[in-house]
Amino acid sequence: MERSFIARNPSVLVFLALLAAFTLGVTALSEGFGIGVVSTSFVKTLGKTLCLCLVAVAMDLIWGYAGILSLGHFAFFGLGGYMIGMWLMYERTRQIVMGSLSEGVLPPTPEEIQAAIGNQIFGVVGSSDFPVIWAFADSLFVQLVLVVAVPGILALVFGWLAFRSRVTGVYLSILTQAMTLGLALYLFQNASGLRGNNGLSGLQNLPGVQAPQAVVSIWFLWASALALGLGYLLVAWIVSGKFGSVIRGIRDNEARVRFLGYGVERYKLLIFTVTACIAGIAGALYYPQAGIINPAEVAPIASIYLAVWVAIGGRGKIYGAVIGTAFVSLVSSWFTGGQAPDVSLGFYTIKWVDWWLIVLGFSFVLVTLFAPGGISGLVELMQRRRRKGDAG
Amino acid sequence: MKTLLEVSGVTVSFDGFRAINNLSFQIGSAEMRAVIGPNGAGKTTFMDIVTGKTKPDEGHILWGDKSISLIGMSEARIAQAGIGRKFQKPTVFEDQTVQENLLLALRKDRSPLSVLLYRPNRRDLDRVTELAQQIGLPDQLLRAAGELSHGQKQWLEIGMLLAQDPQLLLVDEPAAGMTLAEREKTTTILAQAAKTRAVVVVEHDMEFVRRLDCKVTVLHEGAVLAEGSLDHVTKNQDVIDVYLGR
Ligand SMILES: Nc1ncnc2c1ncn2[C@@H]1O[C@H](COP(=O)(O)OP(=O)(O)O)[C@@H](O)[C@H]1O
Ligand SMILES: [Mg+2]
User: Fold this and answer.
1) Can you give the residue ranges of every domain in chain A?
2) What ipTM was reported for this prediction?
3) What distance in angstroms lies between residue B82's CA and the mean position of ligand 2's atoms?
4) What's the pTM?
5) Which residues of B touch A245 (CB under 8 A)?
6) d(Cα B77, Cα B75) in Å, to the nearest integer?
7) Ligand number with the minimum distance to the CA of B36
8) For A50, how many CA atoms within 13 A lie in the half-sphere containing its CB?
9) Residues A189, A194, A197, A198: is their CA dihedral positive or negative?
């Protein structure tokens, strides 16, 4: 079965090969394992980009294929980040606390250790008690499960309520925006138990790992590439068969699919939940590379950017989501990172940090109006032209 | 003949306007029935009610040997129970191939998990080919449905209905916009289907109804005005007044 799936979808193999070549290439040029041409911070940028591509692939599944324009998937991405961030921060703080306490005469009691960790982590929000949600923060295994389970359960409950009441189209988009806004506002509170607007920080330091960041960044690059490869494979497999046929049918004419006897709501709920889980995994790989996560990450605009990337890359073609995201987010970090040279017009200086958003918004409008297939749509159009040219 | 579907005393109002008014209707298990009536008579709304799209305000709808009530069941469950529907406007999935459209309709387990793991086997593909032959599209299997002509789309939709293998087919204006030759072929497909199952055809065109050669129900203002053979109903003075006379 799998072999025939690959045989029927040669583009999947091409993508996996390119991804592997890219990862190996970056490794060979890196400071940690290679000749040192590519800086560690740029390796991290590339690794983060792969994570963004993964959540974009999930976005393409739910929007491009199933036609559900969710504008809340960055909430799931952020939740995945928070879940792994809790363990990273707890464990590292514990090790530091143990180190300093062991210098005392008497060995510290468990209560003393706990209080010291609490003080370290929650001092910024004027507290030293551990909130209930940190109950399992000492267990990497549990937090890894939560990376998938928390976004998954939130999506399941939210999706069940929304789809059961047959909320569709723009109303669903607004509802998902409300969800991510609600989550952001909750996280901003100091009482949320996740350090309010300080967020979780120091996530780049893996507890118990002595290796320098130059090496760790390559580990994360590989992990991100692996996750993207598997995610791509999973989504390509899901859409390749009859299931793909059903969800594309739901996108194009939901009522018709219902009259064929398919429980449309259950399909939507499944897709919503699965993509939320993928987003959670992507977030859990992203934030250790970013080093910090705070509530601003799950602001409503982040989920809208996600839709913009997928639209620019081209909906309904998985590689389109990857191209769009890689292209836009890399260009975006170049412009907003201050590397782009300002353009002086004499009377006015165009600062890209300010102007980039306007350029991005404008290109989104242009793509929507003139190239609804996005970048990948243009590629396919050119291929078709060439084939026609050959034939004629 | 055993009754397959029994609709009794059904009423539906939209904002106070009674689209269906105390309607009663029965059909047996291997019967062809034509439903005619002027525009706005409630023919499409009648189908909406039976298929679960519209909930009636009053009345009963009983289905099958066990006389289960269809009221309150979801569209998907009613379809699974054996009622297939063709819409007035042809609705096939345009960016999928004829084969994919037919496979989608093929009677199989509809739960997400089994659909995810499903891969068509020889028998399913043969059945699809057979259906394509029946609806006159055997060479079009790999073409996108959106590229078909209007008449071909109508047939594809009828083919999808047959693929569902329902006990009752509700067909809304199948011949609209078809050429004479296409209409004849449509008649043949429907007559063939009615040998083993119940078929309800809504149609405007009298010639088409005559060719179906079956019992006719005339709807008017949401209620049954007359029922019987075509010759019988066309002689009915009420029918002449409201419909044929115009
Ligand atoms: N959803 C609806 N809301 C309001 N009025 C409706 C609705 N559906 C149908 N109607 C009205 O009910 C009447 C019957 O419509 P319909 O069943 O489509 O007629 P037919 O198919 O016989 O031409 C029409 O007057 C129509 O305007
Ligand atoms: Mg109608």
Assistant:
1) 5-323
2) 0.91
3) 22
4) 0.92
5) 93, 96, 100, 103-104
6) 6
7) 1
8) 32
9) positive
